[in-house]
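Run log // design_07
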């Protein structure tokens, strides 16, 4: 026996390749061999940017005493959750059923057949050894008790994935108002987000609340979302120096983040901030988009034109030791050496170099703006436009200084679903900023998704070293379809629509469960079937597929697609008791009402198409010269612009300003 991770592609697995633990990668051959040995399994799941995964590795998995116990009595698997999200989801459901909590590292002890029977997140060394020894003794002396418990737990996991029971097909009335009223009680109306810590951005929540607020002229909701976006942008969570958001804030002020930066967060926030800028023309929102695009292009772009997964929370400090957030925080001495004395008082107020911005754990400051620049300028009797210039100069100065530091550890695998979300984010960003670099990145990323990671009629899930090494799952198909529908909307290039249509048919073949009426997460089910229904930090892939089915069905007059989309959404809506976990489904509900509209164009210029796309962030746009079934009735259109919904048209005009 030996540690088998050395030939892995995943940076997370490679981090563990020198551990004394005899780690094995998760594959069918190893799973079958493990079962034949009749030893308990340790299934340890994490990801490269996970801080507590590093802590447990250092304390436990690098330790010879721990390794001796694991190697003697267990078969140990190490899994990158981003490579195998369906496996992670299955064992996370088990952990949540056992402990009512979740997180990473996710550590499961399972029977030789893979059925889970114990689980935890981070566990200290002495406790880890003690638990493993006890479980081994119990398995040797009373294995029947373990098998009995594991079977009962498996029944619970199966029930949690029985969508027919949880979301019955019988039609149930849905009333959004009481759901919204209850949801609003959790809003933090002073600092944005929810009244709790840690604070996650929950972008899909913000997107629904904002779209609903704009459609229904609900200023309470739009003001709340704009407040949240403003406070998030003020620093700490958002890297004001270089751009890009960390995964979440550990405090209620959005000040001290858990410093890892994930591609999926930043991709989604490009959409949110772009739409907010279109609605408000708030320059802060545009600045966030510009900085985030710049950060992604400068740090995560691979030579293949795909984009990397994440930056780690940890980076090397001045003592050349890994420390959480070391790349991002500043000592007061460092800042005083960089900022001139005559600007220091202003700098201190802008970036909270005081008790507000102080981080005790690092004995340093994380740049954090408490008030808006107008308020700070007034306090100092200073011109606000000059203060904006000063702030930009300070940020450039800090960036040049930071470039001398060692960047955080990079997870350089390329996840297809996250890259598809990034394409959506880039398309939204292009509506409000012009950049030749952004245009090139969009063109190259489009080619990457359509021709490099889609091979032999199969979409990949993870790409590295010029190859897909894991096949695509539902999430990859769902977000790629969505991004190419949006790409078609912007370009009116029919090949993008046809690609989305083709992927939709394939997703139905690969993942749709006709009995349950939903899409399973993965085609390869090594343990059990998982149906991802609720939103998390990434929207539910089933909700995204439901919307895709509607749009493809609408454009190609495919009644089955449209009916399936509506059935999926209606079943979910009938069982919602809190909105935050189902906001993508609630967004879907908007398209089944008169809020759904599309714009048919006749003979418009490229400039007019760009304007229409910006003005109509939530609408389908169609050039009536295209050969698409839905346009058969519009070939005789005499006006340049016609706005319609499923039942009728409400406006026909030649003047773009009327839209």
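design_07 sequence
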């Amino acid at each position: 026996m030996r540690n088998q991770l050395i030939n892995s592609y995943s940076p997370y697995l490679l981090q563990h390749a020198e551990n004394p633990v005899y780690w094995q990668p998760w594959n069918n051959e190893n799973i079958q061999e493990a079962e034949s040995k009749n030893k308990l399994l340790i299934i340890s799941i994490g990801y490269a940017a996970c801080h507590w995964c590093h802590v447990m590795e250092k304390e436990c998995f690098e330790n010879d005493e721990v390794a001796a116990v694991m190697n003697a009595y267990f078969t140990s698997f190490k899994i990158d959750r981003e490579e195998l999200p369906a496996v992670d989801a299955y064992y996370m459901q088990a952990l949540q059923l056992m402990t009512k909590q979740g997180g990473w590292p996710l550590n499961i002890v399972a029977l030789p057949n893979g059925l889970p029977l114990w689980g935890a997140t981070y566990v200290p060394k002495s406790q880890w050894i003690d638990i493993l020894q006890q479980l081994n003794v119990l398995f040797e002396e009373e294995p029947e008790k373990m098998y009995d418990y594991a079977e009962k737990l498996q029944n619970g996991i199966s029930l949690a994935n029985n969508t027919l029971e949880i979301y019955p097909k019988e039609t149930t009335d849905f009333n959004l108002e009481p759901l919204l009223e209850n949801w609003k009680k959790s809003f933090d109306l002073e600092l944005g987000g929810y009244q709790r810590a840690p604070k996650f951005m929950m972008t899909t929540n913000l997107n629904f609340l904002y779209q609903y607020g704009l459609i229904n002229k609900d200023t309470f909701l739009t003001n709340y979302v704009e407040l949240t976006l403003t406070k998030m942008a003020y620093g700490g969570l958002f890297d004001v120096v270089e751009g890009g958001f960390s995964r979440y804030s550990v405090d209620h002020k959005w000040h001290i983040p858990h410093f890892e930066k994930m591609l999926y967060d930043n991709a989604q926030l490009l959409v949110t901030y772009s739409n907010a800028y279109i609605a408000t023309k708030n320059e802060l929102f545009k600045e966030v988009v510009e900085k985030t695009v710049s950060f992604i292009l400068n740090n995560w772009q691979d030579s293949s034109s795909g984009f990397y997964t994440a930056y780690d929370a940890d980076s090397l400090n001045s003592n050349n030791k890994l420390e959480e957030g070391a790349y991002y925080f500043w000592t007061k001495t460092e800042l005083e050496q960089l900022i001139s004395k005559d600007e220091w008082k202003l700098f201190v107020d802008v970036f909270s170099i005081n008790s507000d911005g102080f981080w005790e754990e690092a004995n340093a400051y994380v740049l954090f703006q408490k008030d808006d620049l107008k308020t700070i300028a007034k306090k100092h009797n200073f011109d606000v436009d000059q203060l904006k210039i000063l702030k930009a100069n300070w940020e450039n100065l800090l960036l040049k200084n930071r470039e001398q530091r060692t960047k955080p550890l990079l997870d350089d695998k390329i996840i297809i679903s996250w890259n598809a979300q990034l394409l959506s984010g880039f398309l939204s960003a292009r509506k409000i900023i012009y950049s030749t670099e952004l245009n090139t990145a969009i063109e190259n990323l489009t080619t990457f998704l359509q021709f490099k990671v889609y091979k032999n009629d199969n979409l990949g899930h993870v790409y590295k070293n010029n190859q897909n090494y894991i096949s695509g799952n539902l999430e990859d198909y769902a977000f790629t379809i969505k991004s190419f529908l949006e790409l078609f909307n912007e370009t009116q290039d029919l090949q993008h629509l046809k690609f989305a249509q083709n992927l939709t048919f394939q997703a139905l073949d690969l993942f749709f469960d006709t009995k349950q009426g939903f899409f399973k997460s993965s085609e390869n089910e090594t343990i059990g079937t998982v149906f991802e229904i609720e939103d998390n930090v990434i929207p539910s892939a089933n909700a995204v597929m439901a919307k895709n089915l509607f749009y493809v069905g609408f454009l190609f007059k495919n009644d089955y697609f449209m009916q399936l989309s509506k059935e999926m959404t209606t079943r979910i809506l009938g069982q919602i008791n809190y909105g935050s976990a189902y906001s993508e489904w609630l967004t879907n509900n908007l398209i089944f009402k008169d809020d759904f509209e599309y714009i048919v164009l006749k003979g418009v210029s490229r400039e007019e198409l760009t304007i229409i796309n910006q003005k109509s962030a939530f609408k389908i746009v169609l050039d009536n010269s295209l050969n698409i079934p839905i346009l058969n009735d519009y070939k005789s259109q005499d006006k340049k612009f016609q706005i319609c919904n499923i039942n009728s048209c409400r406006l026909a005009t030649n003047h773009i300003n009327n839209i």
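The mean pLDDT is 95.
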